[in-house]
Amino acid sequence: MNPKIAIIPGSNRSASLNRLVANETMRILARTDASVAFLDLADYPLPIYDGDEESGQGIPENASLLARQLMRQDALLLISPEYNRSIPPLLKNTIDWVSRVRKIDGRPVQPFKGLVVGLASASPGRFGGSNGLEALRLVMRALGSEVLTTQCSVANASDAFDAKGALIDDHARLSLEALCESLVDVSRSLSRTAYTD
Questions:
Q1: Residue 181 confidence class, pLDDT cut points 50, 70, 90
Q2: Into how many domains does the chain fold?
Q3: pLDDT digit string (tens) for 151-160?
Q4: Which single residue of 73, 142, 153, 178 could bond 128 by disulfide (Cβ 3.0 to 4.6 Å)?
Q5: Structural domain that includes position 154
């Protein structure tokens, strides 16, 4: 079984270090038998989550579209910057909205339940965004995801890439390769029933 894996960078900045990590991940996973989907949050803009808006307007279409994409996957790799030792608002707001999707085409769904989730981050600091990943780990476990113990934090990330965006820090590259290998292996063994239209 070829695992289906989605990659979501938690930043829309064009110069984001985490988007560089996402690009490296795409290159690594291209060497496996996994089917990989790159989901750019810029393509799924969402309002700030508000319970009153949900009650009055319902779930935004982009949240439902993203939920539909995730339901087709066996695994998800979240590559997130760290804001004040926690999850950046763009990513947290997206997770909050998608977690509220309960039906697709009249069928009950829980987009994150049973999804194998890997975590990665990059930061100019010496901890590589690892504190933010711990906060993200708690959220994804609460939503029923199978969060891998293995993770990748690229420290001193401003100096970790060459001019073409390739990861040149050996420790970080090996860590990212180990995360990708684990993600493929575990998603293959814990494959969930994929949603089909």
A1: very high
A2: 1
A3: 999 999 999 9
A4: 153
A5: 4-189
